[in-house]
Design brief:
15 strands, 8-stranded mixed β-sheet, alpha/beta, 10 helices, about 25% strand, about 300 residues, globular, UDP-N-acetylmuramoyl-L-alanine:D-glutamate ligase, homodimer
């Protein structure tokens, strides 16, 4: 196994709206609609699988139509489900995602199902078989346990830091690769400057800190190095899953032993390609598609 | 066949939101989520079928997962699909319905698929076999043709008038029972007073005009009679489908030969019961459930 992921998985219903919805007015038209699996860790795993990596998912799905859809999507993509829990009688997580036409701004509305995750020895064996354990802060107790096992068993830990949440002070020292969304470093460290905030995060334990900056690309910090890598310009339809796609692709680069900058360019490319389709996973490219994208004449890859 | 319906059918995804969605803020929580068939004519047919009437649907669905869900729901409810069109390669109509917790105010966002309906002789035979033809203004050309056939063949025509739309001046003279939403009579006739507006509608041809007034109940006009019938008080979860349920139940009463007031009380009861569940069809009652509801002690049925 290359990457085992433990975290969130939801069924997303996405619609493109002309503007902010109002109550009790005429019906508003959706110019497009899509149904897709979503969730940070699970979408990163699908991104990795589509690139050719061997992946497995630890998480909880409901015993409903949504759970069945999500399982089928994982299986079709080749993500191993040997440690998936299907909670009897429970509903799966569901999100409605409204994407504003033109601006790409999003409104995300989620129905949260319970689904507690309790790990056992079989999960430890599963995680130990991987080179990376990827986490997103969902199921935090289980995530901390899994990260401790990973460290003890020589498995690298990567973490998608989307927002401050309880018990991060326990988790972050166990993380090797911290990939944070733009808002996380300032919010968590209290430092407004991303480079300073990133350096504060490095001091907490991670060997590598990457800060994703949306249309600006990303910033990689490793030791004393600070490497900004600009994003690719594409016609954005929907940014849902762009971060998740980036995380999966970044791990793919690390698995190949690529240097940080090459890895970040590759991850930026995968995220950009994913933004050209509606839904978190519809636009995830194969390795050949990323290579074709990166070899387009005139594309600035500096 | 008791009622053949020709009109709109959509797949609804409904979520209960705490307030009006905003863009680019934290994820909002849905306190409940449901998936349901929707659409005025099609939901009225399901309401009728659940009450025990023999119904059939003429309309167009896509050849997709949504279309399959809608067909299965119709079949489970016993609505005949002998004249249903499934459009090869097309997508079905989909709506996202956001219901505000507490107020019940709704924001309806719809993805409209094409799906033109062209009638043929087999449809005429199908319609002629029914006692009522129910329309909602969708597929207007086909609806006018169907209404002409119905009149010629001694089939009564009922029409769910939700909002002014093109070619109503051709359709309304062919209608026997016009059931209008609150906003329709003033908007169409230019008369603000509902009784006056209702009388103007009667002059256009319909034998009976019913105006639904939400929590206020309904107003029935027939000849010189004006009969207001108050609504039942229930704990409303979601008003989606309340009007459609009313139409189906009203037709059920007419099929039984009940007088107007009894029919309206029955229809108010079915609409009220349907408001206690999320989604247009989940709360539709059986005949026994309506009878139990109407025999509850203390319920004002005056």
């Amino acid at each position: 196994m290359d990457v085992v992921g433990l975290g969130y998985c939801s069924l997303d219903y996405l619609g493109i709206v002309p503007g902010r919805p109002e109550f009790d007015v005429e019906t508003m038209s959706l110019s497009d609609f899509a149904k897709s699996g979503g969730g940070p860790v699970s979408t990163a795993l699908v991104a990795l699988a589509r690139l050719g990596a061997r992946t497995g998912y630890i998480g909880v799905l409901g015993e409903d139509e949504g759970g069945a859809f999500l399982r089928e999507e994982f299986e079709r993509e080749g993500v191993d489900l040997g440690r998936l829990r299907v909670q009897a009688g429970a509903r799966s997580q569901i999100c409605m995602v409204l994407v504003e036409a033109g601006t790409g701004r999003r409104s995300i509305l989620c129905y949260r199902a319970a689904g507690e995750l309790v790990l056992d020895e079989a999960d430890r064996t599963y995680i130990s078989s991987a080179r990376y354990l990827h986490l997103d802060g969902h199921h935090m107790s289980a995530a901390i346990t899994a990260a401790r096992w990973a460290r003890a068993d020589g498995v690298k830990v990567s973490f998608d830091a989307n927002r401050p949440r309880p018990r991060l002070d326990e988790l972050l020292p166990l993380v090797d690769v911290l990939i944070a969304s733009e808002r996380f470093p300032p919010a968590y460290t209290g430092q407004r400057d991303q480079v300073r905030a990133g350096r504060s995060l490095l001091e907490l334990g991670p060997e590598t800190v990457v800060i994703t900056l949306g249309a600006e690309g990303c910033l990689c910090l490793w030791g004393d190095q600070v490497i900004p890598v600009p994003a690719f310009q594409v016609d954005v339809v929907d940014t849902t899953g762009a971060g998740d796609a980036f995380h999966g692709a970044f791990l793919y680069g690390l698995l190949q032993g690529w240097e940080l900058k090459r890895t970040a360019i590759f991850a930026n490319a995968v995220a950009a390609i994913n933004c050209t389709r509606l839904g978190g996973r519809a636009g995830l490219p194969t390795l050949a598609e990323v290579e074709a994208f990166l070899s387009e004449p005139g594309l600035d890859k500096s």
